[in-house]
Specification:
With 326 residues, the protein is mainly α. It folds into two domains: 151 residues, Ferritin; 153 residues, no CATH class. 77% of the residues lie in helices and 1% in strands. It contains eleven helices and two strands. Strands 1-2 form a two-stranded parallel sheet. Helix 10 packs antiparallel against helix 11. The chain is elongated. The N terminus is likely disordered.
Length: 326
Amino acid sequence: MIPGLNLGRRQFSELSEQEVLALAISAEEDDARIYLSYADRLRAEFPDSAKIFEGMAAEEDRHRQRLIELHKARFGDTIPLIRREHVAGFYARRPVWLMRNLGLDRIRDEAAGMEREAHNFYLKAAQSTTDANTRQLLGDLAAAEAGHQRTAEQLEKKHLPTEVRESEDHAAHRQFVLTWVQPGLAGLMDGSVSTLAPIFATAFATHDTWTTFLVGLAASVGAGISMGFTEAASDDGTISGRGSPVKRGIASGVMTTIGGLGHALPYLIPDFWTATTIAIFIVFVELWVIAWIQNRYMDTPFFRAAFQVVLGGALVFAAGIIIGSA
């Protein structure tokens, strides 16, 4: 669909009161299903947070039932088939499958955003209509969505006291580190350091920037593939709790490739000394980034991490230059 054309979609202003009510019913049903999917996603690791989303889904179902009863009283039993994707400008929901790999905090934020979007949309729609009955209906829907936000806060207080939330947040952070940060850091270190010698050895041996780039590209991609498969095959995560081997493999492989390409890409510049100067600068940036990540996520003292990483990188860098100049 071309943005702005809204082909095949109706404007909200074109909907009748019955269709607005039907749209609200379908929206409440969709949101209840999304909250239940969040609960299923979190139940094993974060059972208390799962209870919150189960309660929010139940609240959505209660509002849907009230809306259905109102529809029956005003328009009868037949509810028009209209959904949010049929209406131009109506707030959208991200596909559930896109949310499956999100962390706990991101899911909480997404749920809060869902309620805000629904509330704001109904409120804006109520202000824009000139029909008194429609204005009242949309105002009631806006109030209902605001009530959902208060319900979520009440459920959080009931199921997620401070100590439980802190425990879940700590567990979520630990899982993020084990699944993404550790493999990614290992890959970045391997890609940044292990490719230094072949890239700079080739550079100083040939003074040919294109050949150096090809060697760097091959070394980076090859190392990324190797590290990715090695990480994925080393541990299925069942006993260690390190999470999905696919996620870890992707994190390790991608970061390994990035680490090597960082100082290979400058050799696309034809001038040898310009390319080499930029590549050396990028190497030091990469090494300091690695030290920062170790300090930020692995609780390694910054100066110790910097000393270890920079010293190791400098030794490999020197070896590459010495070998290439021999």
